[in-house]
């Protein structure tokens, strides 16, 4: 291992099954500060399920999670937030009937001295952060169901990065984005990485993986195929891991 | 929050856009005005007399109070079929307290009777509501089933508490919640009308200042002024009407006699605002604040729009369900106070079929059963519209079965119009 110090996140020997299906089967992955780890695999490989154990959406059946070397009990999304874990879900997890600001601050509303939600302040903050992420975004007053897929995705990304996360989980964050917006998210990832965040990035586009990730962990049928340093392998190697489920010869992780 | 305001994309704004008014609300007010005018014509002007408006107001309060809570229940994709039964058991508890238990302890007419009775009622409502919420939120039993069970259970538990007997006469202070017995008189009514008017103007002005502070677009000054003027006119107008309903001479004479005085010749006095209507006003203001300006309200609408998203955002949706149903139970207890005091005793069939009226009021008022959408004022307006229809038809002499047919038809029609409206405004239904 080329890394020094304690990892930011260690997920050890995680398993979770739905009925008879072993969605995640004894998977171990880790993440260091200032690092982007790509999670790859075919559809249904178990990527989303694995990270949902970290974000508190699912409870793992067995295994353990360590944050900064200490065992972490993550029973629900509130616990995960307490560890500064922020998540962009594949399904975006937005309340369609609320506007962008209400979604961005959902569960963490800004309040006035009287304890009432401060909508004006939240909208102002939302305008600021959206100005950085997606300057074309205008629909601040509409419920998010009136937004396009990409606009909704921008809102979900804004929510995850606004609250000074230390650990960021991004489940296919650019799936609905146009080329320009994808580029902006790529720059955002570099910037957050430079700030020392650890990022799990689930991504199907192999070029984005080669460009953005430091390491890549590949899953197949719920099991971990292996983890590789991205600069030690070619995209062919990674594709081989995804499709054949075999680790390339002579590559350390 | 849940009605999208049209963006001004550079083109000229229409009158309605400048006012930024909720067109849905306008439609409902329009329907209400039409109903009133039609009945007024048919009854040769008897429908819009101060006396009838007074009666309509106090008859609407009980259902309207519960309808505000039903909005939250339905917005979170639940339903509460037990509100009428919970009202009945709260009423029976309060009846037994003030007629049997407390007078034995303190004596009839003791000043502690009313507050302790109310406390017992509120606790009963809160406890049953919390139980419902726990069964729905933590045990995952569908609200439809839990409250359908409650519909059968609670009224009949109340029956055992009172042996099915009518309980009365009620405590004199408690009777003030009912309406006719409890009005604040014309002087205080005017005072309150002025206070409410000032608050309304102040609220609108503050909202405008907040927008300006954050450099958001505001509506033109004339539109803001028109809105303020309309609110003030509505408040003052309503109070003026109630203040012109004179207390019958016979009753005034009795009141003077009971004080050992003689009524001066030509003396007149007016009812003014009923205490129950004031309670409704306070509840509507508080519930609207909760819905729009508190975290609880935000979570209610978020959980209704997307329960999974709410949970993933760190909202404890199970506890939220307990809170919503507890609030519903407390509102049932308050409605029980009003209904019981208005009828002057507790009977076992008090609040029968109220669950249907309350749900209908919320739905006519624009609360979507699919969740995530609804307003407090809409539900109250829904209750007012239904009560006007029913009273108007009774006044005209329409027989009871046909009244129900009409109310049922209106319910379906209202929802259909709502769907058409949302289609036109481009909202998905
Ligand atoms: N809540 C659930 N209930 C039952 N089965 C589930 C549930 N969530 C996931 N699964 C199953 O677990 C397996 C892994 O699903 P998961 O969503 O983790 O895949 P994924 O790797 O994220 O795929 P994709 O690339 O399509 O997003 C699948 O077989 C899926 O059907
Ligand atoms: Mg997935």
Structure description:
- The complex is a heterodimer of chains A (253) and B (429).
- Chain A has eight helices and ten strands.
- In chain A, strand 9 and strand 10 form a beta hairpin.
- Chain B contains 16 helices and no strands.
- The interface between A and B is large, with 38 and 36 residues.
- Magnesium ion binds next to helix 1 of chain A.
- Chain B: InterPro entries: ABC_transp_permease.
- Chain B: It is a multi-pass membrane protein.
How many individual domains of chain A?
2
Strand content of chain B: under 5%
Model regions low in confidence, pLDDT < 50 over at least 5 residues of chain B = 1-11
Give the rounded overall mean pLDDT of chain B: 90
In sequence order, what are the helices and strands of chain B, one letter per element? Answer: HHHHHHHHHHHHHHHH
Class by alpha and beta content of chain B? mainly alpha
List the defining traits of the structure above.
heterodimer, A: 253 residues, alpha/beta, 10 strands, globular, B: 429 residues, mainly alpha, ABC transporter involved in vitamin B12 uptake, BtuC, 2 domains, 16 helices, binds adenosine-5'-triphosphate, binds magnesium ion
């Amino acid at each position: 291992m080329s890394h020094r110090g304690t990892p930011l996140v260690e997920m050890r020997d995680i398993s979770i099954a739905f009925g008879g299906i072993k969605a995640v089967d004894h998977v171990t992955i880790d993440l260091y500060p200032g690092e982007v780890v790509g999670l790859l695999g075919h559809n249904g490989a178990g990527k989303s399920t694995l990270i949902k154990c970290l974000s508190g959406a699912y409870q793992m059946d067995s295994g353990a999670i360590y944050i900064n070397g200490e065992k972490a009990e993550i029973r629900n999304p509130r616990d995960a937030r307490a560890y500064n874990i922020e998540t962009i879900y594949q399904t975006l997890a937005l309340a369609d009937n609320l506007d962008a600001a209400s979604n961005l601050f959902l569960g963490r509303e800004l309040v006035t001295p009287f304890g009432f939600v401060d909508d004006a302040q939240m909208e102002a903050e939302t305008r600021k952060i959206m100005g950085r992420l997606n300057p074309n975004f205008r629909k601040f007053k509409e419920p998010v169901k009136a937004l396009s897929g990409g606009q909704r995705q921008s809102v979900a990304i804004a929510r995850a990065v606004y609250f000074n996360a230390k650990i960021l989980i991004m489940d296919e964050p650019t799936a609905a984005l146009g080329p320009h917006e994808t580029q902006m998210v790529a720059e955002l990832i570099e910037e957050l990485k430079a700030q020392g965040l650890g990022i799990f990035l689930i991504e199907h586009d192999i070029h984005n993986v080669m460009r953005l990730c430091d390491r890549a962990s590949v899953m197949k049928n719920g099991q971990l195929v292996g983890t590789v340093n991205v600069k030690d392998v070619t995209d062919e190697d990674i594709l081989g891991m995804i499709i054949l489920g075999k680790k390339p010869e002579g590559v350390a992780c | 929050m849940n009605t999208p305001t049209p963006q001004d994309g550079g083109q000229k704004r229409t009158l309605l856009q400048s006012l930024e008014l909720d067109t849905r609300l306008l439609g409902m007010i329009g329907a209400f005005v039409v109903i009133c005018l039609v009945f007024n014509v048919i009854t040769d002007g008897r429908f819009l007399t101060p006396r009838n408006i007074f009666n309509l107001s106090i008859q609407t309060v009980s259902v309207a109070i519960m309808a505000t809570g039903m909005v939250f229940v339905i917005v979170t994709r639940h339903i509460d079929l037990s509100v009428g039964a919970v009202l009945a058991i709260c009423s029976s508890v309060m009846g037994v307290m003030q007629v049997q238990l407390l007078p034995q302890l303190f004596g009839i007419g003791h000043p502690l009777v009313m507050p302790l009775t109310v406390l017992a009622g509120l606790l009963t409502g809160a406890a049953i509501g919390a139980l419902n919420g726990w069964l729905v939120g933590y045990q995952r039993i569908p609200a439809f089933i839990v409250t359908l069970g409650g519909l059968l259970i609670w009224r009949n538990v109340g029956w055992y508490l009172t042996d099915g007997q009518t309980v009365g006469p009620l405590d004199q202070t408690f009777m003030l919640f009912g309406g006719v017995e409890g009005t604040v008189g014309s002087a205080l009514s005017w005072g309150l009308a002025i206070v409410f008017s000032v608050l309304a103007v102040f609220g609108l002005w503050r909202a405008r200042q907040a927008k300006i502070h954050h450099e958001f677009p505001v509506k033109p000054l004339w539109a803001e002024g028109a809105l303020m003027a309309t609110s003030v006119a509505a408040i003052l107008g309503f109070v003026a009407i109630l203040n012109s309903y004179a207390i019958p001479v016979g009753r005034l004479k009795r009141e003077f006699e009971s004080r050992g005085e003689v009524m001066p010749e030509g003396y007149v006095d007016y009812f003014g605002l009923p205490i129950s209507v004031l309670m409704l006003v306070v509840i509507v203001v508080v519930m609207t604040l909760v819905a729009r300006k508190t975290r609880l309200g935000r979570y209610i609408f978020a959980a209704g729009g997307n329960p999974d998203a709410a949970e993933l955002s760190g909202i404890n949706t199970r506890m939220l369900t307990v809170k919503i149903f507890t609030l519903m139970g407390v509102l049932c207890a308050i409605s029980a106070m009003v209904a019981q005091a208005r009828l002057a005793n507790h009977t076992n069939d008090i609040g029968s079929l109220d669950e249907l009226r309350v749900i209908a009021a919320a739905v006519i008022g624009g609360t979507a059963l699919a969740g995530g959408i609804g307003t407090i004022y809409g539900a109250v307006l829904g209750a007012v519209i239904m009560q006007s229809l029913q009273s108007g038809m009774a006044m005209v002499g329409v027989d009871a079965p046909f009244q129900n047919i009409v109310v049922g038809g209106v319910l379906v029609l209202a929802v259909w119009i709502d769907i058409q409206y949302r289609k036109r405004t481009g909202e998905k239904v």
